[in-house]
Amino acid sequence: MVFQLPKVALLPIALLALCMTPVAFGAPGLQLVYLVPLALVWHVLRARTVAGADGVVVRTALGSRRIEWGAVTSLHLGRPNKVSLVLNGGELLTLPAVRLGDLPALAKASGGVVPDPSATAEKAPDQGVTSNDTDE
């Protein structure tokens, strides 16, 4: 199962590049401002999470990392709409392009290793899922 950012996210980046044009040609050397939209395009096209029965591959703009499901202890649900894996050493690994609504698909792709919080909420509310939400 592949979770990636929608390609429609490239439209605001194109609008940003268009709006930067008067600034970019205002003085010599200001064309470097186009590096900002190029970096954003690179992020949208590259960032993804690929989950399968044997593990998960997390690809970011600067690299990728493969994690076996045996190294995952639980999920961490953060704000805003951010999903992370808690690894055996306590390390948090953010899953790019995975949102709270994608958790049932992630649980299915993991073969049940990652719990589906929407299904386990009625049975055991604090089993395998952590959250940093506070009501303060």
Textual characterization of the structure:
Helix content is 28%, strand content 26%. The longest helix is centred in the first third of the chain and has 15 residues, at 10-24. The chain has helices at residues 10-24, 35-46, 103-109, 117-120; strands spanning 2-4, 48-51, 55-59, 64-68, 72-78, 82-87, 92-94, 129-131. Helix 1 runs antiparallel to helix 2. Strand 5 and strand 6 form a beta hairpin. With 136 residues, it is α+β, with helices and mostly antiparallel strands.
Summarize this, please?
This protein is an alpha+beta fold and 136 residues long.
What labels describe this entry?
single chain, alpha+beta, four-stranded antiparallel β-sheet, four-stranded mixed β-sheet, 8 strands, 26% strand
